[in-house]
Amino acid sequence: xxxxxxIAEDEPLMRERLLGMLQAAWPQAEVVLVAENGNDAWDGFLxxxxxxxxxxxxxxxxxxxxxxxxIGKAAHIVFVTAYDQYAVDxxxxxxxxxxxxxxxAQRLTRTLARLRDKLAAPPADLGDLLRHLKAALPGQQPExxxxxxxxxxxxxxxxxxxxxxxxxxxxxxxxxxxxxSEALVKIPLKDLLSGLDPERFWQIHRGTxxxxxxxxxxxxxxxxxxxxxxxxxxxxxxxSRAFAHLFLN
Length: 249
Description:
This protein is an alpha/beta fold.
């Protein structure tokens, strides 16, 4: 199988080295995106839907662990890490593929051999492992947004993030919708994501993030499409195919 690959690495030399090594070791694979930070990696994942994602653990914006958590079972994950043996033991216990920096050709060859075998089966559910790693690894507890400043007419409002029903992209802005009101903020949705708790706010479409506690019901529109109803709003929110697994057994 000729895989489609995404690479996310914020260090320029490491990024170029990994890209070159991958192209040499697996010329049949197609690298669909090379991202410099976690936000671009996640946005690119939604656009290209790759089969495999090589994710640096520590990146600006969303960390590699957060990107992996959002990807879920939609792709095979390989972590790229500079962490010590303690972290490596955790990766091994979770049976997840990883590459230690600086990446060595022999190690990459073994990882790619395992990947080729895994591509015939659905990606593994790494949920429990990711929660463990986020708690155990240093610097993996990002500060979460508590308030959002939004301009409504001549007023500047402070919106409690916990009250938000959903966020939705609107050209260069993001709609922030609560039960009482809505506002536009001059922050792209992909930039807001790194401040939102992925356990509480789920992305259900490239342009929509919903507060899980606000979900009232999920309805199947046809064989490939789902729609969400949200408490406190009359709007129906489309669930794209990439996120249907969040609501299906």
